[in-house]
């Protein structure tokens, strides 16, 4: 299973929460993105791009289901 994470930018203006839970035979995935700021200066673009890429990579992780024996 992919691991749950909580990630934020150094200034705390953006936060990403990915939570995966297994209850019996059901999987619950919660993905939350919080942005407290909408304007960024050019010097922040690389960090912003890296943060968004981390979110995309996390959501692309595979969940492998195996049949119980």
Describe the structure.
The protein has 69 residues and is of the alpha+beta class. It contains one helix and three strands; from the N terminus they run βββα. The chain has one helix at 45-60, and strands at residues 5-8, 14-23, 26-35. The protein has a three-stranded antiparallel β-sheet, with helices on one face. The two termini are 19 Å apart. The mean pLDDT is 91.
What is the gist of this entry?
Helix content is 23%, strand content 35%. A 3-stranded antiparallel beta sheet has the order 1-2-3, with helices on one face. It starts with a strand and ends in a 9-residue tail after the last helix.
Order of helices and strands: EEEH
Taking all residues together, what is the mean pLDDT? Answer: 91
Q: How far do the termini sit from each other?
A: 19 Å
- Strand tally: 3
How much helicity do the residues have?
10-25%
Rg from C-alpha positions? 15 Å
**Silhouette:** elongated
Q: Mind describing the biggest β-sheet?
A: 3 strands, antiparallel
Number of helices: 1
Q: What is the strand content?
A: 25-35%
Low-confidence parts, pLDDT < 50 over ≥5 residues?
A: none
- Spatial strand arrangement across the major sheet: 1-2-3
Structural class by SSE content: alpha+beta
């Amino acid at each position: 299973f992919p691991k749950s994470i909580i990630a934020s930018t150094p200034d705390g203006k953006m936060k990403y929460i990915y939570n995966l839970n297994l209850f019996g035979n059901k999987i619950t995935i919660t993905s939350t993105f919080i942005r407290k700021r909408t304007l960024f200066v050019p010097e922040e673009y690389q960090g912003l791009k890296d943060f968004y890429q981390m979110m995309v990579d996390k959501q692309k992780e595979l969940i492998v289901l195996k049949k119980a024996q």
